[in-house]
Write a structure and sequence with these properties.
This protein is mainly α. It is built from 23 helices and 12 strands. The strands form 6 sheets. Strands 1-4 form a two-stranded antiparallel sheet. It has a two-stranded antiparallel ribbon with strand order 2-3.
Length: 501
């Protein structure tokens, strides 16, 4: 029963969290965004002491069930382990924990946490690591499937689906996600929970509490026949059947050992049994029954497993009237990067963001993408080549689980200044091509741009934009809609600290 409950809960949470990263419509977040906020590291960064306290209490009562049920990276390893077990069963053996490596990585991770080295913190945080895998590897496959359905529906005059762009938002982050996926997959395929019990700092932190958990997997030495099935099915490699001991710092309370024990020698209980003592082990009769027992009768919950591929859909060519291809825009060099509305400041973003990519995958305007700056690697930054930050959209602020992007209201965003537009004279079409434009002024939602004569003394001179920086909110509509190619005649410079105007 323990294993069945764990599998059902873990599979449900894993599927819903994965859908949070795959769903680009925002539907899932209306109901299940709280699943991202009960992850350990996001709760700590968001200063959500209630969630942190509950997770620690649950660990103290039941052991590391967080790793088996709530953490998506932990359940992902279970999915890989389940796939391998269909080919080869009873494949694990007891091994001593690599404490020196676990604690070294934990100390380095905590030091990076305190010093604000966000890239290293994000690299090892389990929830963020899985988020990058889901956003960079799984979501493109999901979107290509959606685009295929949209194409088929269009053929029958149905608009139940709509197509979306499939593109790599940041090559460094894509590479990191791919490497993480390969490492975790290989470790889980070969040795089960090696990542959890060797690399993951959250698992190491929780192990200090799980040592003293009230409910534990306990041996009854009188019933044990040393068949070794418990050790052979322990994916954490923490059960030594020879000495009847369990390393509770590594045990993730999966229940595999109990469901595979044919003699009832293992139980998940509160009380300590006298059979844990050495004397009872010495007094038991020597026997070595190891009948051929079919342990394949196990209950599995069907899980949705998505195998990633690096093949991305080719972006559709944009054409002007079906005759000429429109040249794409080049990312400008900004002196100050743009951070999302609600992030308060660049410092707040750098201190609290773990680069989980939830906001990036959720952005409907293709504005957010992971930073390539080494000190802010994988944290979201803004650019306007594919869209602009619409004043009515606050989706990224609603999904951020760490508090790096604070929730904001629609009316608040319309007056929130995250940057200001800067006119680049040499790129402006009225001056370079001698034609009228005014796109930036027409589409500015804040009314911060007006067209004025380029020569104040000549009303017949080409009209160029004049920017009122006090009214500009930095939404990027002017930059995105500027027809100048490959560089816009207006770019938006970010502000280190956001302010309301």
């Amino acid at each position: 029963m323990l294993r069945k409950v764990r599998v059902i809960l873990g599979a449900t949470v894993f599927l819903l969290i994965t859908l949070l990263f795959l769903d680009f419509t925002g539907t899932m977040h209306r109901w299940f965004s709280w699943l991202a906020k009960i992850q350990f590291v996001p709760a700590v960064l968001a200063l959500n002491f209630v969630v942190v306290a509950v997770l620690l209490l649950v660990t103290w009562f039941f052991g590391r069930v967080y790793c088996s049920i709530i953490c998506p990276m932990g359940v992902f390893q279970d999915v890989v382990e389940w796939l391998h077990n269909r080919r080869k069963k009873n494949r694990y053996t007891y091994s001593k924990g690599m404490s020196w490596l676990r604690y070294t990585l934990l100390v380095l991770w905590l030091a990076a946490f305190v010093m604000g080295v966000g890239a290293f913190v994000a690299l090892l945080a389990p929830y963020s690591s899985y988020g990058r895998i889901a956003a960079n590897l799984f979501q493109p496959v999901w979107e290509m499937g959606n685009n295929a359905l949209a194409y088929l529906c269009e053929r029958i005059d149905s608009y139940a689906f709509y197509s979306t762009d499939v593109w790599i938002r940041s090559m460094p982050t894509f590479v990191i996600a791919t490497v993480t996926f390969v490492i975790v997959f290989v470790l889980a395929w070969r040795n089960g929970r090696t990542y959890c019990n060797t690399i993951c700092p959250v698992g190491t932190l929780l192990s200090f509490v799980s040592r003293f958990s009230l409910f534990k997997v306990r041996f009854d030495a009188d019933k044990c026949r040393s068949c070794s099935l418990c050790s052979k099915n322990c994916k954490a490699s923490c059960i030594d059947f020879k000495t009847h001991t369990v390393d509770y710092s590594r045990c993730v309370t999966c229940g595999n050992c109990i469901s595979n024990c044919k003699f009832g020698a293992l139980s998940y209980s509160l009380s300590r049994k006298s059979s844990d003592s050495r004397s009872s082990r010495d007094s038991r009769p020597s026997s070595n029954p190891s009948p051929s027992i079919d342990s394949s009768k196990r209950t599995f919950l069907a899980s949705s497993v998505m195998v990633t591929t690096a093949i991305l859909a080719q972006e559709k060519k944009k054409v002007d009237g079906g005759l000429a291809k429109i040249e794409g825009k080049t990312v400008p060099q900004r002196h100050t990067p743009l951070t999302p509305p609600g992030s308060l400041s660049a410092q707040n973003m750098a201190r609290r963001c773990t680069g989980c990519q939830l906001c990036v995958s959720e952005c409907p305007n293709n504005v957010l993408r992971p930073s390539t700056d080494l000190l802010k690697l994988m944290q979201p930054t803004m650019s306007y080549e594919r869209g602009y930050c619409r004043p009515e959209c606050t989706r990224c602020s609603k999904v951020c689980p760490t508090g790096a992007i604070q929730p904001i209201r629609h009316e608040q965003k319309a007056s929130l200044q995250i940057g200001h537009a800067v006119w680049i004279k040499k790129n402006c079409i009225p001056l370079t091509d001698g034609v009228e434009c005014g796109n930036c002024a027409r589409h500015c939602p804040a009314g911060a741009i007006e067209m004025v004569p380029s020569n104040p003394n000549d009303e017949e001179s080409p009209y160029v934009p004049a920017i009122n920086e006090a009214r500009c909110i930095g939404c990027g509509a002017c930059e995105h809609l500027c027809p100048a190619r490959p560089l816009s005649a207006i770019i938006v410079e970010g502000h280190e600290v956001h302010r309301e105007i």
